[in-house]
TrEMBL record, chain A:
This is Cytochrome oxidase subunit I profile domain-containing protein. Residues 221-474 form the Cytochrome oxidase subunit I profile domain. One of its GO terms (cellular component) is membrane. It comes from Tumebacillus flagellatus. Keywords: Electron transport, Membrane, Respiratory chain, Transmembrane, Transmembrane helix, Transport. GO terms for molecular function: cytochrome-c oxidase activity; heme binding. The chain crosses the membrane at residues 22-43, 75-95, 107-127, 133-155, 167-187, 207-229, 238-256, 276-296, 308-329, 349-367, 387-410, 430-452. The keyword Nucleotide-binding does not apply. GO terms for biological process: aerobic respiration; electron transport coupled proton transport; respiratory electron transport chain. InterPro entries: Cyt_c_oxase-like_su1_dom, Cyt_c_oxase-like_su1_sf, Cyt_C_Oxase_1.
Automatic annotation (TrEMBL), chain B:
Residues 53-161 form the Cytochrome c domain. Keywords: Heme, Iron, Membrane, Metal-binding, Transmembrane, Transmembrane helix. This is Cytochrome c domain-containing protein. GO terms for molecular function: electron transfer activity; heme binding; metal ion binding. It comes from the Bacteria. PROSITE patterns: CYTC. It comes from Tumebacillus flagellatus. It holds the Pfam family FixO. The keyword Iron applies. The chain crosses the membrane at residues 12-32.
Length: 474, 167
């Protein structure tokens, strides 16, 4: 078989990696699924009778089972899969060679998907472990770790046999993140029996809860920003040194942040301090990323209005920055006492994960897809719909949650903590819960535009020409 | 310009791994050496359910049905928790496997719910929250649970109370 099977593309251009394609396409399926699940959860919060017409729906689609399925499908299904796709594309590209083993890559991708779907079904069937973000039962955790290990091995081998001596900074972030993921995932999913007492488990669970975001989603996301930004604006990153400082600061400070979820809670005070201080210090790496982006963009900001992938990327970086201003603020004892346990955290959790890193991932898919399929993105209009529905939907969603959270926090301080007083407070939240569902619906519509656009691009996007710049710059 | 060390993925991975493990040591491992964390309180002993007791099975139902996603079990020394009962300390959770402090309070905190309502109230409330608590409640009906599951769940909920001497 010829190296290239795409008509009109020169034979010297390698075929797009099947591993990357599997990860990208399936991740978009999970993206839509997580949106549907999230929307159902939101509607059940507006009307608990929603989708309870028969016993089957009542049991298997009860709020308490759907919610962890929603978070897992978004985190493990969508964002982790698309990140794998980005790395399976980006690492070989930066090493100027093919993936070390396409076969192992495809095996990993298929195993990953079978495992996640079975895992999600097991949560709906009532086997959730009860540990936030680590709800998958042990069996599926083991397969996740195997897939992470295979990915690590494959990408490390690709790196060892690279044609390019320099390790670009994205390689640092990506390779480091895979190692982080393995460490964080194993610690967070150790069987309860091995960990010991309940009060000890707090350290494990909140380490995991925080660092699956901080050491995995953040690190891959920042590495991806550093990969895409120079490509999209066609100039080098503003400061190489700053990006390395950011890398070391992230791994040094983020790993300490777990206890800040238990501020004012049942942990020793020294442990709270050990969580709060690094949370504040996190402002340093976050600003090093943002400063680097602003430096790189200096003089070429106008390109944001022309290049839609860049528009997604810059918006993602902006939301990431905002989330990381919220984070240290929330970790302080005063704000934490008001905001913890409220809907505020729901709004906050969606900011880095949807507004921030999902946007980075959208940008990556729009950038990489034409370089995999040798077809251009089908419709710029659909990209714009995707962008604006996502941004506006997210803002409605997030402001509804933040406002509801502040109301909850202050009403509790007024004593409405139990019984009928609690319900009175709940009634005042109704309008915000409706707003959340409205915002969520817009977000969902945006993702439909995304999925449709990707589908049409793969099927009917305009073929690249032999002198197309994308054939040169991966 | 890039120096030699920057080209070495081994140094990168070793350094990153060590820094992350430092955080693990500080926040995950060090608590093993804190007496307040590893000493069970009298309250914890109430929650030390024998295997296959109604309460232990009830806790399983509590997690399986995802009650944890709307109900915290943690009372803080802050104004927002002032009416929820005694402040919880690390040792109170000693026998919790897994831990159910959780992160949302869409419904009220359940740390000491056993002191508030009767078994009969709990049963009626699980069957129809809107009828018992009020139409504004957004809790799902748990009328699909088997009789056994519901009995176990209520036994678990009633067991959630502080030890007597803790005022």
């Amino acid at each position: 078989m010829a190296q290239s099977t795409v008509q009109g593309v020169p034979a010297r251009i390698p075929k797009g990696s099947a591993t990357v394609k599997i990860f990208f396409y399936t991740s978009i399926f999970y993206l839509l699924a997580s949106m549907v699940l999230g929307l159902v959860v939101a509607l059940k919060s507006v009307n608990p009778e929603f989708l309870t017409s028969n016993r089957f729906l009542q049991e298997y689609f009860t709020y308490g089972r759907l919610r962890p399925t929603h978070t897992n499908t978004a985190l493990i299904g969508w964002l982790t899969s698309v990140y794998f796709g980005v790395m399976y594309y980006g690492v070989p590209a930066l090493c100027k060679r093919q993936l070390w083993s396409e076969k192992i890559g495809m095996f990993t991708a298929v195993l990953w998907n079978i495992n996640y779907i079975a895992g999600a079904i097991s949560i709906l069937a009532g086997y959730q472990t009860g540990v936030e973000y680590a709800e998958l039962p042990l069996l599926f955790d083991i397969v996740v770790v195997i897939c992470v290990g295979l990915t690590f091995w494959n990408l490390i081998q690709t790196t060892r046999h690279r044609q390019e001596k320099i390790l670009y900074v994205s390689m640092w972030y990506w390779l480091g993140s895979i190692l982080n993921l393995a460490i964080v995932y194993i610690i967070g999913n150790l069987p309860v029996a091995w960990i010991g007492s309940g009060s000890i488990q707090m350290g494990y669970y909140y380490f995991y809860l925080h660092n699956i975001i901080g050491l995995w989603f953040t690190v891959v996301g920042v590495g991806t920003i550093y990969y895409l930004l120079p490509k999209l604006v066609q100039r080098p990153i503003y400061s190489h040194k700053l990006s390395l400082i950011g890398f070391w600061m992230i791994v040094a400070f983020y790993s300490w942040n777990g206890p800040h979820h238990l501020v004012n809670g049942p942990i020793p005070v020294w442990l709270m301090k050990a969580g709060i201080i690094p949370s504040i210090l996190l402002l340093i790496p976050v600003w090093s990323v943002l400063a680097n982006i602003i430096g790189t963009m200096k003089g070429v900001w106008y390109k944001v209005s022309q290049n839609l992938a860049l528009k997604f990327l810059i918006t993602g970086a902006l939301f990431y920055g905002l989330a990381c201003i919220q984070g240290p603020f929330q970790s302080l004892m005063g704000p934490h006492a008001i905001l913890h346990f409220t809907y505020w955290t729901v709004g906050h959790a969606h900011m880095p994960l949807f507004g921030g890193f999902s946007f980075v991932a959208f940008s990556a898919v729009y950038y990489m897809l034409p370089r995999l399929t040798y077809r251009h993105i089908y419709s710029r209009a659909l990209m714009n719909w995707h962008y604006w529905l996502s941004v506006i939907g997210f803002l409605i969603f997030a402001f509804a949650m933040w406002t509801a959270g502040i109301i909850q926090g202050f009403e509790w301080m007024d004593g409405k903590q139990l019984g009928s007083a609690f319900l009175q407070m709940l009634e005042s939240l109704h309008i915000f819960l409706i707003s959340r569902a409205v915002g969520g619906s817009l977000m969902f519509l945006g993702q439909i535009a995304f999925a449709w656009n990707v589908w049409r691009s793969v099927k009917a996007g305009q073929l690249v020409t032999a002198d197309d710049p994308i054939l040169v710059s991966r | 310009m890039a120096n030699e060390a920057e080209k070495n993925p081994g140094i990168l991975l070793l350094g990153a791994g060590l820094l992350v493990l430092l955080g693990v040591m500080g926040t995950v491992w060090l608590p093993y050496f804190d007496d307040s964390v590893v000493t069970p309180t009298d309250t914890a002993k109430i929650r030390n359910y024998p295997t296959d007791s109604a309460e232990a099975r009830g806790k399983h139902v509590y997690i399986r049905e995802g009650c944890i996603w709307c109900h915290s079990q943690q009372v803080r020394p802050v104004k927002a928790d002032s009416k929820l009962g005694p402040v919880t300390v690390p040792g109170d959770y000693y026998y919790d496997k897994p831990l159910t402090t959780m992160t949302q309070r869409t419904g009220p905190d359940l740390m000491w719910v056993g002191t508030r309502y009767s078994a009969d109230w709990q049963h009626q409330h699980l069957l129809n929250p809107q009828k018992i608590a009020g139409p504004a409640s957004i809790m799902p009906k748990y009328d699909y649970l088997s009789e056994q599951d519901r009995n176990d769940l209520v036994a678990y909920l009633l067991s959630l109370k502080p030890a007597p001497q803790k005022k």
